[in-house]
User: What shape does this take?
Amino acid sequence: MELDFSQQIHYVWALLPEIVLCVWGMIVLIAGVSGKHQDADDGAAGDPSFGPKSDLGWLTLLGILLAAGANGWLYGVNEVGDSSMIAVDGFRLFANWIFLLAAALTVLISFVYIYRLRLQAGEFYALILFATAGMMFMAGARDLIVIFLGLEVMSIAVYALAAFNRRDRKSAEAGLKYFLLGAFSTGFFLYGIALVYGATGSTNIAAINTSVASMAASPGLLVVAIALLAIGFGFKVSAVPFHMWTPDVYEGAPTPVTAWMSAAVKAAAFVAFFRVFLVGFDAAYDTWFPIMWWLAAITMVTANLIALVQTNVKRMLAYSSIAHAGYLLVALTAANENAAAGMLFYLLIYTLMNIGAFAVVMSVAHQAEERLYIDDYAGFGWAQPGIGLFLTIFLLSLAGFPGTGGFMGKIYLLQGAADSELWVLSVILVLSTVASYWYYLRVAWVMWMKEPTSKDQHSLVVVPLPMCLALIVCVGLIIYTGIFPGAAIDFARSSVQGLGSLGGGMLGLGL
Amino acid sequence: MSGAYLPLLLLFGVSILNAIGMVAASHLFSPRRDTPQKLMPYESGMIPLGSTRARFSVKFYMVAISFIVFDLETIFLIPWAVQMRELGWGPFLAMCMFVVVLAVGLLYEWKKGGLEWD
Assistant: This one.
C-alpha cells in the first residue's frame, strides 16, 4: 500500500499502531470501572495471575499484541512525498518494537504487584497504553510539534503512574517531583522549538535540515535553540547536569513503573533526540558536538561514581540507568549510521535487562515496597537459585560481561564511536564500565556469598507465572543476542538506513 | 520611524505620572484617621491571617475538573459549529471522534462515582 499524505485519511493508516493503543486504552479504562474488579479482597487466597483481578492485564496484553500487528503491517507500506509530519521508516518501526516489548514486559511483571498493593488495575494499564502511544508519536514524528505532543502524552501518563501508589508518601513525592521538574524541562523544550522556528522558519525536521544546511555558520539564535532542545531532551533521558530528579523518582515510584520509566521513557526520548539532532541539525554538527561530548563524558563518570556508594537497590539501578544514558549519548555524539544502529540495539537490550532486573527486585521485595536494600539480598542466591541466577545474568549484562547482550551492545556503541574517531570518549566509556562492575557485582556477591540473616528470610519470595514468562523472555533474548548478535544488529542496521536521506542530510559527517 | 512610537511613549509617561500623582496627592491632601480595620492589607476583604493549609473537600476539585473539561469542549465545538456547513464531512468526523473520546471520559467519571456529591 502506498501512503500519500496529501490525503488526510492516509494519516490514519500511518498512525494505526498509535490509534489501536489509544482506543484499547479507553477500552481497558472502561472495563476497569465496570464489572467486579474494583474491590478485590487483599487477603483472598489463590494465584492472582488469573481471575477477575488479572483479566485486565491479559486484556491489555491483547491490545499490545494488536498494536504489534499493526506495527508489522506498516512494513508493507510505502510513503509517497516527503512533506509529512509522520515518518513511516524503519527507525520508527524498530523503536515501536522496543516500546511494545517494554509495555508487554511491564504489564506481565505488574500483575501481582497491583494485586498486593490494591492499586487500580484499569487505570494503571490504561495509562501504560496511553504512554506507549505517546512514545510512538515521538518516534514517528517528523515535526517538532508532533514530538512535543508525543512527549506530553507520554509524560503526563508517566507523572500519574509515578504517583500511582497513593497510600505511599514516597510515591506521591516521586510523582510531584517528576511533574514539577518535567514541567520545567517542557518549558525549555518548547522555548527551544520556538527559537528553532525563529532561526529556520519551520518546525518540520526535513525543512530545518535544509535551512540549517544553507547557513554559512550557525547563528546565535540557532545555537541557543540547540542548547535548549538539548536541555529538554537531556532531562528526559536523565543526562548528568539534569539528572537530579532521577534517583528520587525512581526510588519512590512503584517498582513496575520504575522499570517502565527507566526503559521505555528513556528509549522514546533517545529516539526523538536522535532524529532531531541527526536529521534536523545535521549540518550544525560542529555546534552541538562539544555539548554532546561533554554531556556524555560527565554523565558516564558522575553516574558510575555515585552508584558505587548506593545501598538501596532501586536507587543503585537509577544511577545505573543514568550511566546507560551516558553510554547512549556516546552514540549520539558519534552521529553516524553504525552508532544509530548500535543505539537501537542497545536500547533493545537495555529494555530487556533493566526490566528483568527490576522484576527480580520486585520479587525480593515481596511484590511490594519492602526489602529494597542490598543487605536484604544476603543469601538470596542459594535460597532461590532460579531467579538468583536470572538476577545475576541481568546484572552481568548491565555491567557488560562477555556472553551477554549488554556486552555486544557496548561493542556496537564503541564501533560507532570509533567510526567517528572519538577515542577519548571511548576510553571514558570503557573505564566507567569497569568501575560499574563494582556496584553490579556487589549485589551478586552479597546474594551468593553472604549468609542470610535469618533462615526463612527468602521463603516468601514468589514469582508468579506472568512474571516468570517475562523473566524467561528477557534472559533468553539477552543470552541469544549475547552469543548470536547478528540477526538483531542486522535488523537495526537495516532500520536506520535512509534515516538521514529525507532532507538530503548526510549521516556520519564525522569530524 | 521612531516617531511612530512617540504617542506610545507619551501614554506610558502619562500613565506613570498619573499613578504616582494619585498616590502622592492622596497622601498629601487627605486627612488621616487610622483605625485597625483601615490598616489591614485588604480593607473590607477577607482577613488574611491564619493557616495556609486550609483544607477543602476533594469534591470541589472533582467538580472543577469536570467543569474545565466541558468548558473546553464548548470552546472547541462552537467555532466548528459556526463554520460547520463550509467545513464539510472531514472536520465533522474529527469532531465526532473528539466528542466520543470525551464521552468515554464522562462514562469513566460516572462509573467511578465522580458525579456524586456524597
